[in-house]
Amino acid sequence: QVQLVESGGGLVQAGGSLRLSCTTSGSIFSISTLGWYRQAPGKQRELVAVITSNGNANSADSVKGRFTISRDDAKNTMFLQMNSLKPEDTAVYYCNVHSPIWDYWGQGTQVTVSS
C-alpha cells in the first residue's frame, strides 16, 4: 500500500504564501502523474494543479500565476507553492498520485487564508 504524507498547511493572511509538500515511500512516484486537489466546505473536490511524469504542468484558471506545482522524483516528493493567497483559497488540500493502474490520495492538509 502506497502512503502519501502531506505537510505545509496552516493559517496565513491574505496575500501571504505557503508551500505544501507530499512525500511517498512508493517506487511508483517517478512514473506517475501528480496532482493537487482541494475541497472547500460544502463544495466538491476540485483540481488545483497537475504535473505529468515528463514535467508538463497545468493548473486551474483560479490559481494560474499564483500557484506552482513541482516534483522531485529523486526524493519522491511533490510540492505546491502558493503565493498571493486569497480567502477563497481556503480548503483542505489533497495530493494525488495517479496512473491508468493506480490512484492514491494523501490525508489532506488544511489551508486557511484570513482576510
Task: Give unreliable regions as ranges.
Answer: none
Q: Radius of gyration over alpha carbons? A: 13 Å
Give the mean pLDDT: 96
Give the % helix: under 10%
The termini sit apart by 40 Å
- Gross morphology is globular
The string of secondary-structure elements, in order, is: EEEEEEEEEEE
Q: Count of DSSP helices?
A: 0
What's the total count of β strands?
Answer: 11
Strand content: over 45%
Instruction: Describe the largest sheet.
Output: 7 strands, mixed
Structural class: mainly beta
Q: What would you say this structure looks like, in words?
A:
- The chain is an all-beta fold and 115 residues long.
- Helix content is 0%, strand content 52%.
- The protein is built from no helices and 11 strands.
- The protein has strands at 4-7, 10-13, 18-24, 33-39, 46-51, 57-59, 67-72, 77-82, 91-98, 103-105, 109-114.
- The chain starts with a strand and ends with a strand.
